[in-house]
Amino acid sequence: MYRVTVLTLLMWTSNAEDITVKSGDDVPLPCQGPRDANITLLEWNRSDLKTDDYVFFLRGDQPNESFQDPSFRGRVQLMDPQIKNGDVSVILKNVNTNDTGTYECQVSVRGKESELINTINLKVEDSGQTSGRDEDGNMRGHVGLIVGLTGVIVAAAAVVFILMIYRRERNHLPPHPPSIC
């Protein structure tokens, strides 16, 4: 029994699809259920969620946000709301590094138990942007660049000021007295 379980886990892991995206992107999570079947239940799970809530939950033909983890509410939708040809792929919007994890798509069809269809290992990388808008929509900027440029401008102004004073003083010096030899 132990060997079968390990073999099954290895097969699931090897069949897992790896997706890497940048923070802020929208990412499709593909899942193909049985074609021409009456899908009665769709569950998108993430194995490391600390709650029993789902990434996305659909019973019948209606998504149900009350079973959805709060961090995913309003950010997950079916790619094809009519689920034509068994396509139960979803789009996860505005991903962030907290969305990194293993996602599982499980489907139930009328008269059968839930079946694992697809496993996705999602890795969200920090976009590395230091400008643009943050996750709350507020502007953010290159603080280090601004401070550095300000320092350069102040230093350049100080050099110009010192040079102006030096020239002015040099022009107002009395001529040198003649040397006595």
UniProtKB/TrEMBL annotation:
Q: Which PROSITE patterns match?
A: IG_LIKE
Would I find GTP-binding among this entry's keywords? Answer: no
Q: What stretches pass through the bilayer?
A: 143-166
Q: Domain named Ig-like: which ranges?
A: 2-121
Locations listed in the record? Membrane
Q: Which residues, if any, are the signal sequence?
A: 1-16
Keywords (A to Z) from UniProt: Immunoglobulin domain, Membrane, Signal, Transmembrane, Transmembrane helix
Tell me which SMART domains the record gives: IG, IGv
> InterPro entries annotated for this entry?
Ig-like_dom, Ig-like_dom_sf, Ig-like_fold, Ig_sub, Ig_V-set, IgSF_BTN/MOG
Q: Where is it mainly found?
A: membrane
The record's Gene Ontology cellular component field reads: external side of plasma membrane
Listed under GO biological process in this entry are:
regulation of cytokine production; T cell receptor signaling pathway
What does the record give under GO molecular function? signaling receptor binding
The protein here is known as Uncharacterized protein LOC122974278
From what organism does this protein derive?
Scomber scombrus
